[in-house]
Write a structure and sequence with these properties.
4-stranded antiparallel β-sheet, 7-stranded mixed β-sheet, pyridoxal phosphate, globular, 2 domains, 406 residues
Length: 406
């Protein structure tokens, strides 16, 4: 049985107060808190094991290298990837997606070639493709979701044209919590020779991910949302795509030989990891993934489904809370406005005075908010340590907002 009280004891920050109130942390969609196991691993790495990786023959360098390289296997297991060499270390999904834009797409897409995007995308899966549009004349084709936030996989596949080279799509919206059937998109795209990049930044946090079953070419995840350190992450790249890619950055560690006149590159994945990496953040990232796996991703998903259902029922019962996105299988992410003149920033400020942390603004998803017809929302996003009592605290604080701003 999932013991949320025991889980909460693993997170030191959850015992603190904010503005004289117990902290209710509902900003997990932006960044999650860290369990003590991760904090301890970071401290241990800096205190007793730190050295640069790959370059030294001394004890500390070998120890750090072993810990760092073992992270690939942890990520591969977490995503059900057969070959750990298909995992490239990154600082997060943003770097991973940019790596694909520069290293895979830029060398092969020409003016007039098309990339299909959904309106659900985070800016991290939009702006790199705008770079290509600006520099190479690539065309961006957009697919919209319905009023509930549902993205029809067939609509994505119908957007494929003769010059479509890539589909870049989220697995779960960070605004609506909508889950996208990326496996169906990948299957249909593969039949037409179109590659698929999946932004797994939100989905990998809330449910089991099986990259082999999804069948994508690229799958990006970010450590700081997965209860790991900021500056950590990884991207899965299908071996065939790895072979097609050019290096994204140049520097130490990604080369085989360098002379005055030539350079040859290391084999993947090292070819795409120039310079001194985020050694300790990646070590902490692996500890975070192992922590989640020890709880069981199915158990985490079931716990969050319960929170989602309770929160949805209680928010709906208020009558004056407008939640954006209401697909039945959505994640426990609620972006909302209140009837009346209250701005999202005002609501967030009142909630903060009650010790409740939510996000307010556009959530790096301006095309989606424009499509939904809202300028800004508050977002309460739940994680593996949140409780039904915290939902009650949120509802009580929203009732106060309603009194103040109605």
């Amino acid at each position: 049985m999932y013991d949320v009280d025991a889980v909460r004891r693993d997170f030191p920050i959850l015992s603190r107060q904010v503005n004289g109130k117990p902290l209710v942390y509902l900003d997990n969609g932006a960044s999650a808190q860290k369990p003590k196991a991760v904090i301890d691993a970071i401290t241990e790495a800096y205190s007793n094991e730190y050295a640069n990786v790959h370059r030294g023959l001394h004890f500390l360098s070998n120890a750090a290298t072993d810990r760092y390289e073992a992270v690939r296997g942890v990520v591969a297991k977490f995503l059900n990837v057969r070959d750990p060499s298909s995992i490239v270390h990154t600082t997060g999904s943003t770097q991973g997606i940019n790596m694909i834009s520069y290293g895979w797409a830029a060398p092969r897409l020409e003016a007039g070639d098309e990339i299909v995007l959904s309106v659900l995308e985070h800016h991290a899966n939009i702006v790199p493709w705008h770079f290509l549009r600006e520099r190479s004349g690539v065309v961006l084709r957009w697919v919209e979701c319905d009023a509930d936030g549902h993205l029809d996989p067939q609509a994505v596949l119908d957007a494929i044209g003769p010059r479509t080279k890539l589909i870049a799509v989220t697995h779960m919206s960070n605004v609506t919590g909508s889950v996208v059937d990326v496996a169906a998109i990948c299957a249909g795209a593969r039949e037409q020779g179109v590659r698929v990049l999946v932004d797994g930044s939100q989905a990998a946090v809330h449910m089991p991910v099986d990259v082999e079953a999804i069948g994508c070419d690229f799958y990006a995840i970010t450590g700081h949302k997965l209860y790991g350190p900021s500056g950590s992450g990884a991207i899965y790249i299908r071996p065939e795509r790895l072979a097609e890619m050019q290096p994204f950055m140049g520097g130490g560690d990604m080369i085989d030989t360098v002379t005055r006149d030539t350079v040859t590159y290391a084999k993947p994945p090292m070819r795409f990891e120039a310079g001194t990496p985020g050694i300790v953040p990646q070590i902490g990232f692996a500890v975070a993934l192992n922590y989640m796996s020890s709880l069981g991703m199915e158990n985490i998903a079931a716990h969050e489904r319960r929170l989602r259902d309770v929160a949805r029922a209680k928010l709906d019962a208020l009558g004056w809370v407008r939640v954006q996105g209401n697909t039945p299988d959505k994640g426990a992410i609620f972006s909302f406005t209140l009837d009346g003149a209250a701005h999202a920033h005002d609501i967030s400020t009142v909630l903060d005075q009650r010790g409740i942390a939510v996000r307010a603004g556009t959530h790096c998803a301006l095309p989606l908010l424009s499509h939904l017809g809202v300028g800004a929302t508050c977002r309460a996003s739940f994680g593996l340590y949140n409780t039904e009592a915290e939902i009650d605290a949120l509802v009580s604080a929203l009732e106060l907002c309603h009194e103040l701003f109605a």
